[in-house]
Design brief:
This protein is an alpha/beta fold. It has a single domain, classed as 2-enoyl-CoA Hydratase, Chain A, domain 1, CATH 3.90.226. It is 49% helix and 11% strand. The protein has 16 helices and nine strands. The strands form two sheets. A six-stranded mixed β-sheet has the order 1-2-3-5-7-9. It has a three-stranded parallel β-sheet with strand order 4-6-8. α6 runs antiparallel to α13 and α11 crosses α12. The longest helix has 17 residues. The protein is globular and about 55 Å long.
Length: 332
């Protein structure tokens, strides 16, 4: 029989959800999203399950995001599969955030894009020394979705803006600083955590194995990050970064210069509008409208081609006129 893409079990009082496509870094499909959501619905009123744990199979990562090859095929053919996927995925993100039972996410290894969406909305988010988190969507002609605009707009200072516009990958310490994770547990202690979760309350089980996280880089960079990324004008932000005395700021300017101009403009505005919203659901609804628009724009297919399909890393961006971007947000 074929291996199921998601494995669900109940062990003691613990309901376990394991994303099970390790060869694809557990990249999400519509089927996987449906299985996870259906499982959460089934456990909602199941008295056997007191806590839910989300993990990924293999040692390379929890989840590398959505299936970009399928998204590319959909974008170039004008299909509707990706929009259905986004709709179901964002509903799952909201369900995790509002789940009435504790949801523990083990954000081990690579956690990108949709992997953030299935874990960073959990009630207890655990990182390890192997954790590598990123929202790299501007590099493929897209925008931080799966509630990314909500999460990043609420990071301290302008950290979220920096992460969104550069797609920078961060480790455990910086993930906690950015508000994308809660505590650090060394990877070799995870089996003890899982054992504890089968009988103890999540807080008790986690406190028995958590330790201080390794030092990150974001705290030391706050001065130039908060100064350079302030405001709503992307051109001003890039000028500040390029002219700053910090090597980190200049490196950020160079990195931003490689990203889709359309994605950068939409992402900055998405974060600023999400910061004024009152709920994750409202941000997800805006993200869905933006995602639907990106499926019709050329940069998404081109960005995935350059990064995933041909891997030449030389995307030929086709910027959208600013007036059309204004209309996009006016409709949203």
């Amino acid at each position: 029989m074929p291996t199921p893409p998601v494995i669900t079990t109940v062990d003691g009082r613990l309901g376990r959800i394991v994303l099970n496509r390790p060869a694809a870094l557990n990249a999400l499909t519509t089927e996987m999203v449906g299985i996870v959501h259906d499982t959460l619905r089934a456990w909602h009123d199941d008295d056997r399950v007191r806590t839910v744990l989300i993990t990924g199979a293999g040692e390379r990562g929890l989840c590398a995001g959505g299936d970009l090859r399928a998204m590319h095929a959909d974008a170039v053919s004008g299909g509707g599969g990706s929009l259905e996927f986004f709709t179901r995925e964002y509903d799952l993100n909201a369900a995790i955030a509002g789940y009435p039972k504790p949801v523990v996410a083990w954000m081990d290894g690579l956690v990108m894009g949709g992997g953030i969406g299935i874990s960073a909305h959990a009630s207890l988010r655990i990182v390890t020394e192997r954790s590598r988190l990123a929202m790299p969507e501007v590099g493929i002609g897209f925008h931080p979705d799966v509630g990314g605009s909500w999460l990043l707009s609420r990071a301290p200072g302008e950290i979220g803006t920096h992460l969104a516009l550069t797609g920078t990958t961060i480790g455990a310490g910086d993930a906690i600083t950015a508000g994308l994770a809660d505590c650090f547990v060394p990877a070799d202690r995870i089996p003890y955590l899982i054992s504890g979760l089968t009988g103890d309350e999540p807080g008790v089980a986690v406190s028995a194995v958590t330790t201080a996280p390794p030092a990150g880089d974001l705290d030391d960079a706050r001065d130039w990050i908060d100064e350079c990324y302030a405001g709503d004008d992307l051109a001003v932000i890039r000028t500040r970064l390029a002219g700053h005395g910090s090597a980190g700021a200049r490196a950020a300017a160079e990195e931003i210069a490689t990203k889709s101009p359309t994605s950068l403009a939409v992402t900055l505005r998405s974060l600023r509008t999400a910061a004024r919203m009152s709920s994750l659901r409202e941000a997800l609804d805006q993200e869905l409208r933006l995602s639907a628009a990106f499926l019709r724009l050329p940069d998404l297919a081109e960005g995935i081609r350059a990064q995933i399909i041909d891997k030449d890393r030389r995307p030929r961006w086709a910027p959208v006129p600013p007036g059309l971007l204004y209309e996009l947000f006016k409709r949203s």
